[in-house]
Structure formats: structure tokens, C-alpha cells
Amino acid sequence: MREQKIGGFSERLSSQAEARKALLEKFKPKPTAKPAEFESTAAKKARELEEVRARRAAEKEEARRLAEEAEKARQEALANDEQFQLELKRQERKDRKAAEKAAARAKREQKSAMRRG
């Protein structure tokens, strides 16, 4: 007994035509979704540049503020440090005496130059 073929010639032709249509559908252009507001490349680049500049300016300001606070804290710590204050006074005294000594030496040299010349 012979089995009957599934589908006849006309059915194969119709399925072949459907396959060809499906293949051609892939190549047809599909509608694109356009953005509500189109932004040109130059405008987009300018906007991004402004964002970067603003962010960098904010970071710079924050760094400056932190540095100011750190300096203020350092100054407070130095002002509260008695040992450092004593050292500052000693250094001031040494500097003042060295300046007086240099002035006296210059005065003596000037007098001696006047006697010689």
C-alpha cells in the first residue's frame, strides 16, 4: 500500500510563494520612531560640554572649600599648640637679634670706612 503524499503540488507552490513573500518582507524598510525633539550633533556636543564644564567647576569649588577648611583647622591647631607658640616667639627673638646685629655691623663698617677713606 502506498502512502499518500502530504499536500499536493498546488499546496507546495502556495507555501513556496508565502516563504518568498516573508523573505521579501525582511528587506522592506520599516518605519522608524522619530524623537519628539531632534537635537543636532553640534547642539548635543555643546550641551554635553556645558555639563562637563559645570561638573568640573563644582568639583573645583568643592576642592577649594575643602582646602580652605583644612587650612583653617591647621591654623587653629597651631594656635592652640603652646609648644609651637613658644617656638614662634623664640624664632621671632632670634630673627630680631640677628637683624640688630647685622645693622650694628653695617654701622661699624660704615664708620671704619669713613676713617680709612
Total DSSP E strands: 0
Q: What would the average pLDDT be, to the nearest integer?
A: 88
- The fraction of residues in strands falls at under 5%
Uncertain stretches of 5 or more adjacent residues: none
Helix content: over 70%
Rg over alpha carbons: 46 Å
What sort of overall outline do the alpha carbons produce when their principal axes are compared?
rod-shaped
Structural class: mainly alpha
What are the secondary-structure elements, in order, as H or E? Answer: HHH
Report the sheet with the most strands, covering strand number, pairing sense and barrel closure. none
Total of DSSP H or I helical runs spanning 4+ residues: 3
**N- to C-terminal distance:** 149 Å
Provide structural commentary.
With 117 residues, the chain is mainly α. Helix content is 80%, strand content 0%. It is built from three helices and no strands. It has helices at residues 9-27, 41-80, 82-116. The longest helix has 40 residues, at 41-80. It is rod-shaped and about 135 Å long.
From the structure above, extract its key features:
117 residues; mainly alpha; 80% helix
Layout of SSEs?
Blueprint: H1 9-27, H2 41-80, H3 82-116
Provide a short characterization of the protein structure.
With 117 residues, the protein is mainly α.
